[in-house]
Specification:
By secondary structure, this protein is mainly α. It has three helices and no strands. The longest helix has 41 residues. The mean pLDDT is 83.
Length: 96
């Protein structure tokens, strides 16, 4: 039971580190667009049709924004793994 709590504590710490890394990466961005939550309405009753934006463009824009966020998350995971490997390497070197 204690091992389970220890693992969940490590997972929680890792999630917290990843969260902090993602926030730091977001702060480094010049401008980060937000997803347009209003879906296109093919009946023509949405704000998209009133702005003249086609549903395909709306979808492509949101897809591009999601890919940007995914890239930031993958970068944070990579940075966290590098930091973790450096810390474990330092721990092994200090034991010798």
């Amino acid at each position: 039971m204690e091992k389970s709590n220890n693992c969940s504590g490590k997972d929680s710490d890792r999630r917290h580190r990843l969260h902090e890394l993602v926030i730091a990466l977001i702060h480094q961005q010049d401008e980060l667009e937000l997803i347009d939550a209003e879906a296109p309405n093919f009946s023509g009753n949405s704000s998209i049709s009133s702005t003249g934006e086609e549903p395909a463009r709306w979808l492509e824009r949101n897809k591009r924004i999601i890919q940007k966020y995914q890239s930031l998350v993958r970068s944070a995971i990579t940075l966290d793994a590098l930091l973790d490997s450096e810390q474990s390497e330092l721990g092994r070197n200090s034991q010798h």
